[in-house]
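> forwarded from #structure-qc
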């Protein structure tokens, strides 16, 4: 079994070394015992720090690490480009994880173990058995839950945690939906899950332990507004009534791209 892990990285010089150390140590053990082969693809997107230099230093020590350096930014854009690169090789499983080590390698491997019977496995921070360390503030819990309720209502998907940054797919599943992905930033997780469900692929939610890491770039108010506009834009793009409502799409599109700045 061959596994490809895509890690989008935007100005992650302070954290990418820790993540690569932990992930290579864990998956080297699995590789050395014949459990699986793995590759880690770092997709650097519009970064302005020394993320590339740190990744290059790890590449010299481990042949299973490679990277792309993109001039354009956005997590979704980085994931799409990373998946495209991974599909050029003979990987059986392709997934992504955030660069900040919020999901440790042992919990990412939990997704691997679930894919024998499913097409996609996603970490869910809110199902019984999962933990968030330290616990989210009340404000963040409220914002997260309202956002998820909005997403589920807009797209009629049952997943209670679309935004956790650890997801894994069988090759057949991601190769089927990749050409149809439009979003380049905040709504990429939602669009992938929406497309997979629409094509009949099975999705498994998996318990996890998620660590709130220092150094986050999250702006709770600003990012929540951006996510809201991204979801509205995505809903319009995939709406069965996109013909009759086409006159308001330019307005939403301009607002969306303004909020992405």
């Amino acid at each position: 079994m061959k596994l490809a892990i895509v890690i989008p990285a935007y100005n992650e010089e302070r954290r990418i070394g820790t993540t690569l150390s932990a992930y290579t140590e864990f998956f080297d053990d699995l590789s050395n015992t014949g459990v699986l082969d793995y590759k880690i693809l770092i997709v650097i997107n519009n970064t302005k720090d020394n993320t590339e230099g740190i990744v290059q230093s790890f590449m010299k020590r481990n042949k299973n690490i490679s990277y792309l350096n993109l001039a354009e930014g956005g997590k979704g854009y980085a994931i799409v480009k990373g998946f495209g690169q991974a599909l050029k090789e003979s990987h059986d499983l392709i997934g992504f994880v955030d660069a900040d080590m919020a999901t440790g390698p042992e919990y990412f491997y939990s997704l691997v173990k679930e894919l024998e019977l499913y097409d996609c496995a996603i970490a869910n921070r809110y199902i019984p058995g999962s933990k968030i360390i330290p616990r989210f503030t009340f404000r963040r819990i409220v914002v997260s839950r309202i956002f998820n309720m909005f997403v589920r209502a807009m797209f009629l998907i049952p997943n209670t945690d679309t935004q956790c940054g650890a997801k894994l797919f069988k090759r057949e599943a991601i190769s089927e939906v990749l050409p149809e992905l439009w979003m380049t930033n905040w709504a990429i997780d939602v669009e992938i899950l929406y497309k997979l469900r629409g094509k009949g692929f099975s999705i498994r939610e998996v318990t996890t332990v998620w660590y709130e890491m220092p150094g986050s770039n999250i702006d709770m108010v600003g990012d929540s507004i951006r996510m809201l506009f991204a979801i509205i834009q995505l809903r319009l793009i995939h709406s069965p009534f996109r013909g009759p409502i086409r006159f308001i799409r330019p307005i939403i599109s301009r607002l969306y791209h303004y909020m992405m700045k």
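QC bot note: Residues 244-249, 256-261 have pLDDT under 50 and may be disordered. DSSP finds nine helices and nine strands in the chain.
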